[in-house]
Design goal:
globular; alpha/beta; 8 helices; six-stranded parallel beta sheet
Length: 178
């Protein structure tokens, strides 16, 4: 009996955030008997449509709709893997927060994602829309706890190295000082 892997995503439930791709991946995970829970934090106009998809595809036991969460630290702490399925994104704060919480990230290889997620090191980047490959990466990581924890550590290091706000401000001030 394998342990249940906790997956999560946070964001407005709108087309741009791509949660439907996550539900399509969830359907694949279930068909392959991969034990998981997918926590979706957020609200938006697609919520009823997403819930309908879960009903139609018998995913109501696996997918949990959490509405808007004020205490995000606890949300990230409870995850094994953070999932992003955005179609386009500036710098995703949710991805950075998940990485800061030592969680590996699986995302589509779009816009700024390669700057955030080092493919194969702090998570995986999947060609956009390739739901089969996306599900495969979840299974690959979810069945190798050591790799999952190692990648989560690398994600944290990456945030500290490249996205440390205070240090970046200090660097900026040094550059701006005559």
């Amino acid at each position: 009996h394998r342990e249940v892997i906790v997956l999560g995503n946070a964001g407005r439930m709108v087309e741009q955030k791509g949660q439907m791709y996550l539900l399509m991946a969830a359907r694949i995970l279930k068909s392959r008997n991969f034990p998981f829970r997918l926590l979706l934090a957020g609200t938006g106009r697609l919520k009823n449509q997403l819930k309908g998809f879960c009903r139609e595809n018998d995913l109501l036991n696996e997918v949990v709709f959490l509405d808007f969460i004020y205490e995000m630290d606890g949300f990230y702490r409870n995850l094994d893997i953070y999932l992003s399925a955005s179609l386009h994104e500036g710098t995703s704060h949710a991805v950075l927060e998940a990485m800061a919480a030592c969680k590996p990230v699986i995302a589509f290889n779009i816009s700024s994602m390669p700057e955030l997620v080092a493919d194969g090191l702090s998570g995986y980047l999947v060609p956009f829309g390739q739901v089969d490959e996306y599900a495969g990466r979840i299974i690959e990581l979810g069945t190798d706890r050591k790799k999952m924890i190692n990648m989560g550590g690398k994600a944290r290091e990456r945030v500290e190295e490249y996205f440390n706000f205070e240090r970046n401000i200090q660097e900026f001030v040094k550059l701006a000082t005559p």
